[in-house]
Amino acid sequence: MEVKREAIKELRRSRSWSQQHLADACDVNLRTIQRVETLGVAAPETVLALASVLEVEQSQIILAPRADLPRLMPKTDRGIAILSIFTTLIGVVIGFLLTFLFN
Fold first, then answer.
1. Helix, strand or coil, per DSSP, at residue 63
2. Is the pTM of this model over 0.85?
3. Per-residue exposure over 20-34, b if at least 16 CB sit within 10 Å of its own CB, e if not
4. Is residue 66 in a domain?
5. Which of 8, 63, 82, 85 lies at a CB distance of 3.0 to 4.6 Å from 2, suitable for a disulfide?
């Protein structure tokens, strides 16, 4: 999910914490905090930990989803969609072959 990276960075700095200190307090990897502050993205569990450790509401550090951007299908859903299309195509091909062979 998208987070307010500058707000998180400012909350961390206002406590005079290093990124490593925040990572330790949240029980996440340093790279996770770096990604949050650089890219502005975090897993829901990370957002929960950040809000708890920084003593703020989650709504203060997350960005509201933008309705104007299309939602990307998760990889697992894409895999299922591709498998469904592939299975349907195989069924159609087999149907044509059986029709051709028995007519």
1. coil
2. no
3. eebbebbebeeebbe
4. no
5. 63
Residue 47 inside a domain? The answer is yes
Which residue range is the domain that position 102 belongs to? 73-103
- For residues 4 and 62, is the Cβ–Cβ distance under 8 A? yes
CB 37 within 8 A of CB 9: yes
pLDDT in tens, the chain (103 residues): 999 999 999 999 999 999 999 999 999 999 999 999 999 999 999 999 999 999 999 999 999 876 655 555 555 666 777 888 889 999 999 998 988 888 7
Q: Are 32 and 23 in contact (CB under 8 A)?
A: yes
